[in-house]
Amino acid sequence: MDWIAWDDSLDTGHARMDTEHKKLAQLFNRLRDAVDGGEGKAACAEVLDGIIGHAQAHFELEQQMMAQHAYPKAAQHAAEHAMLLRQARDYRDSFDVNTAAARAAAMKFPEVWLAYHILFSDKELAAFLAHARGHQG
Ligand SMILES: [Fe+2]
Ligand SMILES: [Fe+2]
Fold first, then answer.
1. Could you list the residue range(s) of the whole structural domain that residue 64 is in?
2. The CATH number of the domain where 105 resides is what?
């Protein structure tokens, strides 16, 4: 069962951003499976590396689009990306599949990390881009 159930409230309306966000949600589900399945620390670290790599590429894409369209909140948005990556790396370094606290954090992490940023910052960016381009999507 998917742990991060994608629901329409997370859709930004920007096709490419939404596709990449869904991929991130899948990777978080993969992390949950690895933790729940007792796959061990190395396997979990590998999944976390995948999440970080995908997020980094995704953030770069958003930052390119912000620069291209002179998004007024580009600096603030990029700072959020940098903070999210820093948190993800710290989390990866401290992650221990054997402690209850780490397991609990693995369940909570993407909620804060992924959903919050999408709901507020990415939706605002997508709306700006749709307007800048003069069409939706
Ligand atoms: Fe973003
Ligand atoms: Fe995003």
1. 13-133
2. 1.20.120.50
